[in-house]
Amino acid sequence: MNAQNSSSFTVGQRIVLGVVPRMVWALLWLVGLTWRFEVIAEDGVTPVVFGQKAGPEIYCFWHQCVLPCAMYFRRSGAVILISRSFDGELITRILRMFGFDAVRGSSSRGAREGLLGLVDVIETGRTAIFTADGPRGPIYETKMGPIKLAQATGAPVGAFHLQPERAWVMNSWDRFLVPKPFTRIVVSWAQWTKVAPDTRPEEFEARRQELNAAIERARLRALAHLGQSAS
After folding, report:
1. Cβ atoms of 177 and 70 closer than 8 Å
2. Are strands 157-164 and 58-61 parallel, antiparallel or unpaired?
3. CB-based burial of residue 134 (10 Å sphere; 0-12 exposed, 13-18 middle, 19+ buried)?
4. Helical H runs in 4-106?
5. pLDDT tens, residue by residue, 176-208
6. Alpha-carbon distance 152 to 155, whole Å?
7. Domains in the chain: ranges and CATH
8. Beta strand spans in 30-144 (E)
9. Is the pTM of this model over 0.85?
């Protein structure tokens, strides 16, 4: 969906796009098979478990969790909103090898086109996924896109976080997590956020804050479950 024109990239970038995705996919697949997922959830929340085919729902998580999410949801058939940048194209090609599809756009580039693409995703019975604070942050701050999509489609918004027990933390805006081999990864689910179709635009911010709080609760609950401190 929304394929990127390769001519918009430099020769060097096209070489990277032709080689790196398969290398990353192979490495992530091999290492990911050693990860052990443990699911927890807030009271009254039914989590989405590994291998479950997802329906017309919206999932939101922080950008730092992309790698473990790619492994955990690889059989879900979900569609992810990814930016139109070179980095976005690189991520798109990797994720497609895991069985995902992508709608191109972000809060900064192609926002309207990306949102319309995700409306179609929900209306055809598939799941839409947002890295809620991507593509450039600030960290742990949800954008408005998931709320607008929920209001337009009536789909509920699921909030979750994947926290590795042992990981390399990158020196990036999102503190990107690279889980180490054979580590345990906690999949933490919080309460779902619902946005009624008749919700007025001036009420969107309250729903956004509700979703933001849910994803953060999921993150903090996962850290506490592992006996780790928040950062």
Report:
1. no
2. parallel
3. buried
4. 11-32, 66-72, 86-97
5. 999 999 999 999 999 999 999 999 999 999 999
6. 8
7. 6-225 (3.40.1130)
8. 36-41, 58-61, 79-82, 101-104, 128-131
9. yes
Amino acid at 26: A
Which parts of the chain register pLDDT below 50?
Answer: none
From residue 58, give the alpha-carbon distance in Å to each of 43, 94, 127, 146, 229: 20, 21, 6, 7, 28
79 within 8 A of 102, measured Cβ to Cβ? yes
CA separation (Å) from 217 to 139, 168, 180? 15, 22, 24
Contact 187, 39 (CB under 8 A): yes
Q: Which amino acid is at 123?
A: E
Angle at 204 between CA 202 and CA 208, to 5 degrees: 145
CA atoms within 13 Å, Cβ hemisphere of 178: 9
